[in-house]
Specification:
Immunoglobulin-like; four-stranded antiparallel beta sheet; mainly beta; 0% helix; 133 residues; four-stranded mixed beta sheet
Length: 133
């Protein structure tokens, strides 16, 4: 069996550094945002988060994401290598007025939060029919 005293702890990359400014450890989730004619779709990586632990709020033109991670219950003293840091996820997005806030929907599957931000009808492209003589 290997001795734990000789194993080094791998340091996390700078992009995964937690913030400690809101009364606990928070990570900034990585996101992808796609645009179609009808909506913006936001994909946020939130590993270890269940749908019931996601708080998504829209207020004053901002979409606020807070996702809580349940702490593991096993004894951590026996790890030979421990790279997983405990903490929650937090991120704020400024939302343009072209988004219909009353129709925002979200789902959380397999550690990915998917947020659908539908566009208001006025900004959707439409085809103009041209009549001829």
């Amino acid at each position: 069996m290997a001795e734990t005293s000789t194993l080094a702890t791998k340091q996390p990359g700078t992009e995964a550094e937690p913030e400690a400014t809101r009364g606990g450890v928070y990570f900034t989730p990585r996101v992808d945002i796609y645009e179609t004619e009808n909506e913006l779709t936001l994909y946020a990586d939130v590993p270890g988060v269940r749908a019931e632990n996601v708080e998504l709020q829209f207020e004053r033109g901002e979409l606020i994401l807070h996702a809580r991670v349940n702490k593991p219950t096993e004894d951590r003293k026996q790890y030979l290598l421990n790279e997983y840091l405990e903490g929650d996820f937090y991120r704020v997005f400024r939302v343009h007025e072209s988004i219909d806030a009353s129709r925002i929907e979200a789902e959380c599957k397999h550690g990915v939060l998917i947020v659908h931000l539908p566009k208001v009808e006025a900004v959707k492209p439409r085809q103009v029919k041209v009549r001829g003589e």
